[in-house]
Write a structure and sequence with these properties.
Rossmann fold, 6-stranded mixed β-sheet, 14 helices, 8-stranded antiparallel β-sheet, 603 residues, Alpha-Beta Plaits, single chain, Elongation Factor Tu (Ef-tu), domain 3, alpha+beta
Length: 603
C-alpha cells in the first residue's frame, strides 16, 4: 500500500568522523524491521571493502525504512553520510536531497570541527536539525557537558537534544519519533510534469548505469520514456525500486520518494550527478538546480605501470568518476612515465582512496606522481592561467605573479596544546585570526594557511601534537600572491618532470636538499655514476651522487708491473663514460612517493 506524501520523511545523519553515524543507521534498520537480527552486522550500509577496513564512510548510502507510529505507517528515507572533510561534497549532496538532518555528537568527545561545519551546512540548506548525543553507554560519556557545548557553539537548546546509543539501541525509537514529529514532509506537486534529481549513480556490468534519484514533482513509472535534461538523451525505464537496503522492485516512485532507476544506459558520458529526469511527451519546462560542481584542490598524475594498460586505466577512471563525481581527470604525457592522466581530488585522503579503489576494482598497477595544489599564474601579457601541474608553469620571464590557494582553518584543540599548534602554523606561513574558548579545557584556533601546507601532513601533525584530541576543518577562501618557484629534479642530467614541484622560495633549498638525499636512498645503483640535482631554473641548489657499481677488474692480476693494472682501470673508466652517455636510469615508484615523505622529515 503506497504511503501518502504527508507521511514521507527524508533525512540524513551528519557528524564528525567516528561519532557513530553508521552504527546508528544500522540500529535504525534493525528496529524498523528493514533487516532481521540474523542479517545484522556492523557498518551494514558501508558496502565497500575499503570502508569496512578503514572503519570510515566514503560514499553516502541511501535506504528506505517503514516505521509505525500512532497506528500510521511512515516512510523514512535515510542517507548515511561520510564525516571526513575530504568527503564534504558527499554530505552537501545528501543535504540537497533531504528536509531534515540528525546532528550527531559523541558523548565523550563532544563538539568537533566537522560537527560545526556540517551544522552550518545544514542550516544553509534550510534543513530541520534534530540534535542527538550518541555513545551514552560509554563509561566516559558526559552528555550534560556535551549538551552545554552544543548550546555554546551551535546555539542548540539542551532540552531538544536526544540521548541515544547506536551500539545498544537505547533512545533510537525516540529518535525515529522525533524525525516523524519534527521533520516536515517533502514539498512538490504530484500532478506536475515529472522532475527527479539524480543524486548518485554507479555502473553495473550487466545492467548499465544505475541512477539513484529523489522524485521532486510528478511520478516515475516502470516502462515510462524518460529524458535526461543535461545529457539530452531519452531512455525507457526498465526497472524501479527502493533500497531496503538491498534493491527491492516497485512499479512507481511518487513525489518525495527516493529510489533507483535502471534504464539500459550504457554510455557513461550521458550521466551527470545533479541532472534532472523528466518524461518524454510531458517534459518539465525547467530543470532542478542540481549541485554546484566541486572544485578539486589536489592534483597528481596516475600512470599505468605497464604502458599497454593505458586504455584499461581510462575505462576504470570513467567508471569511478560515475560513482564519485568530485573526482576529475584528463590525459597527460610525461617524459619519464609515458601516457597517463592528470587527476584532481578534494584532498589527500580522497586521492589515496581513489588510487586504492582503482587498483582493487580494476586490477591495475599504478604509478603516482607527487601531488600538488592548483595555482593561479598571471602572465606578463595579463592572462590568468590555472596551473595544476608544475610542468605547465610558464618560463619565469613570462610570469608577473604566482598566486597560491589559501584556506581558512579551524582547529579544535585542548587548551594545553594551543602553543604547539600556533608554532606549527607559524612554521607553515600561517596568519593568525582568533582564539575562542569552548570551555576551560578546549578552544577553537582560527588561521589562514596556504593549502599546500595543509594537505600533506597537517592532520597527522595535529593529532601528534594534541595526543589525538585535536580536530580540524578547512574552507577555501581564495588565491593570494606569494614568492613561489618551480623546483626541478634532474637525474643523470635529465629533468624528471614527474618529480617537479612548486614551493615557496624560502623553503626551496631545504626541500631540494631533503629530496635529493631521499632519492639517493630510493634509486638503485647503476653501472655508472648517477648525479641527482635539485635546481631552480638553471641554478643547481643541491646535489647528491649515487656511486657506480664497480667490478674489481684487477682481481686476476698478481704481482707484475703496476702499468698493467692502470691499463685495466683506464679501460674500465672509458666503459663507464660510454655507459653514462647512453645508460638509462630506472626510477622506482618509491622515489615518486619520497616527495611526500620529505615534507615532514625536514620541518
Amino acid at each position: 500500500m503506497p504511503v501518502p506524501r504527508e507521511r514521507i520523511r527524508n533525512f540524513c545523519i551528519i557528524a564528525h568522523i567516528d561519532h557513530g553515524k553508521s552504527t546508528l543507521a544500522d540500529q535504525m534498520l534493525l528496529q524498523t524491521g528493514a533487516i532481521t537480527p540474523r542479517e545484522f552486522r556492523e557498518q551494514l550500509l558501508d558496502d565497500m571493502d575499503l570502508e569496512r577496513e578503514r572503519g570510515i564512510t566514503i560514499k553516502a548510502s541511501a535506504v528506505t525504512l517503514f516505521h509505525e507510529l500512532d497506528g500510521e505507517t511512515y516512510e523514512l528515507n535515510l542517507i548515511d553520510t561520510p564525516g571526513h572533510v575530504d568527503f564534504h561534497y558527499e554530505v552537501s549532496r545528501a543535504l540537497a536531497a533531504c528536509e531534515g538532518a540528525i546532528l550527531l555528537v559523541d558523548a565523550s568527545q563532544g563538539v568537533q570541527a566537522q560537527t560545526v561545519a556540517n551544522a552550518y551546512a545544514a542550516l544553509e540548506a534550510d534543513l530541520t536539525i534534530i540534535p542527538a548525543i550518541n555513545k551514552i553507554d560509554l563509561p566516559q560519556a558526559r552528555p550534560e557537558e556535551v549538551a552545554e557545548e552544543m548550546e555554546q557553539s551551535l546555539g542548540i537548546d539542551p532540552a531538544e537534544v536526544l540521548l541515544v546509543s547506536g551500539k545498544t539501541g537505547q533512545g533510537v525509537p525516540e529518535l525515529l519519533e522525533a524525525v516523524i514529529r519534527r521533520v516536515p514532509p517533502p514539498t512538490g506537486d504530484p500532478d506536475a510534469p515529472l522532475r527527479a534529481l539524480v543524486f548518485d549513480s554507479q555502473f553495473d556490468e550487466y545492467r548499465g548505469v544505475v541512477l539513484y534519484v529523489r522524485v521532486v514533482d510528478g511520478c516515475l513509472k516502470t516502462g515510462a520514456e524518460i529524458h535526461l535534461m543535461q545529457a539530452g538523451r531519452d531512455y525507457e525505464v526498465l526497472e524501479l525500486g527502493r533500497l531496503r537496503p538491498r534493491r527491492e522492485k516497485c512499479d512507481e516512485l511518487r513525489t518525495g520518494e527516493v529510489g533507483y532507476v535502471v534504464a539500459n544506459i550504457k554510455s557513461l558520458s550521458d550521466v551527470h550527478v545533479g541532472d534532472t529526469i523528466t518524461e518524454v511527451g510531458r517534459a518539465a519546462s525547467e530543470a532542478l538546480p542540481g549541485y554546484r560542481k566541486p572544485k578539486p584542490m589536489v592534483f597528481c598524475g596516475l600512470y599505468p605501470a605497464q604502458h599497454t594498460e593505458f586504455a584499461d586505466l581510462r575505462r576504470a577512471l570513467e567508471r569511478l568518476s560515475l560513482n564519485d563525481s568530485s573526482f576529475v581527470f584528463e590525459p597527460e604525457t610525461s617524459d619519464a612515465l609515458g601516457f597517463g592522466f592528470r587527476c584532481g581530488f578534494l584532498g589527500m585522503l580522497h586521492m589515496e582512496i581513489v588510487q586504492q579503489r582503482l587498483e582493487r576494482e580494476s586490477g591495475l598497477e599504478l604509478v603516482q606522481t607527487a601531488p600538488n595544489v592548483t595555482y593561479e599564474v598571471e602572465t606578463t601579457r595579463g592572462e590568468v592561467l590555472q596551473i595544476t601541474s608544475p610542468a605547465k608553469l610558464p618560463h619565469p620571464t613570462h610570469i608577473r605573479e604566482i598566486r597560491e590557494p589559501i584556506v581558512h582553518v579551524s582547529f579544535l584543540v585542548p587548551s594545553d596544546s594551543i602553543g604547539a599548534i600556533m608554532q606549527l602554523c607559524a612554521d607553515r606561513r600561517g596568519k593568525y585570526i582568533r582564539t575562542e574558548y569552548l570551555g576551560p579545557a578546549r578552544a577553537v584556533l582560527e588561521y589562514e594557511l596556504p593549502l599546500a601546507e595543509v594537505i600533506y601532513d597537517m592532520y597527522d601533525r595535529l593529532k601528534s601534537l594534541t595526543q589525538g584530541y585535536g580536530t580540524m576543518d578547512y574552507e577555501f577562501i581564495g588565491f593570494r600572491a606569494s614568492d613561489l618557484v618551480r623546483l626541478d629534479i634532474l637525474v643523470a642530467g635529465k629533468k624528471v618532470d614527474a618529480l617537479s614541484m612548486i614551493v615557496h622560495r624560502s623553503q626551496a633549498e631545504r626541500r631540494g636538499r631533503a629530496l635529493v638525499k631521499k632519492l639517493k636512498e630510493e634509486i638503485d645503483r647503476h653501472q655508472f655514476e648517477v648525479a641527482i640535482q635539485a635546481a631552480i631554473g638553471s641554478r643547481v641548489i643541491a646535489r647528491e651522487t649515487i656511486p657506480a657499481l664497480r667490478k674489481n677488474v684487477t682481481a686476476k692480476c698478481y704481482g707484475g708491473d703496476i702499468t698493467r693494472k692502470r691499463k685495466l682501470w683506464a679501460k674500465q673508466r672509458e666503459g663507464k663514460k660510454r655507459l653514462k652517455q647512453i645508460g638509462r636510469v630506472e626510477i622506482p615508484q618509491e622515489a615518486f612517493l619520497a616527495v611526500l615523505r620529505v615534507n615532514d622529515d625536514q620541518r
